[in-house]
Amino acid sequence: GLSNLSSLTIVGNSGFWGGGIHTTGSHNLTATSSVLQSNTATSHGGGFYADGGSSSLNSSTLVTNRATGSG
């Protein structure tokens, strides 16, 4: 699949992987002019976690995201 996101704000979410955004498999994601802030993951990728596929964050801000494992 393909997702194009623009001017998106994701704040204060949580998950096991990718508290803000989590993509898997062959999914391709492009986020432009977006903010991922204060998201938490109990494993990896506090704000964003991509497990395969192709992802890009353009002119976007990632701030104060946290993960227990890494990222």
Supply database-style keywords.
71 residues; mainly beta; three-stranded parallel beta sheet; globular
Question: In what range is the share of β-strand residues?
Answer: over 45%
The chain-level structural class is mainly beta
Overall shape: globular
Total helical segments: 0
Q: How much is the radius of gyration in Å?
A: 11 Å
Helix content class: under 10%
Report the major sheet: 3 strands, parallel
Q: H/E element string?
A: EEEEEEEEEEE
Distance between the termini: 24 Å
Neighbour order of strands in the largest sheet: 1-5-9
Q: Show unreliable segments.
A: none
User: Would you report the number of β strands?
Assistant: 11
Give an account of the 3D structure.
The protein has strands at 2-6, 9-11, 14-15, 21-24, 28-32, 35-37, 40-41, 48-51, 55-58, 61-63, 66-67. It is globular. The model has no long low-confidence stretch (mean pLDDT 95). The strands form four sheets. It has a three-stranded parallel beta sheet with strand order 1-5-9, with no helix packed on it. With 71 residues, it is an all-beta fold. Helix content is 0%, strand content 52%.
Question: What is the topological layout?
Answer:
Blueprint: E1 2-6, E2 9-11, E3 14-15, E4 21-24, E5 28-32, E6 35-37, E7 40-41, E8 48-51, E9 55-58, E10 61-63, E11 66-67
Brief characterization of the structure:
The protein is mainly beta and 71 residues long.
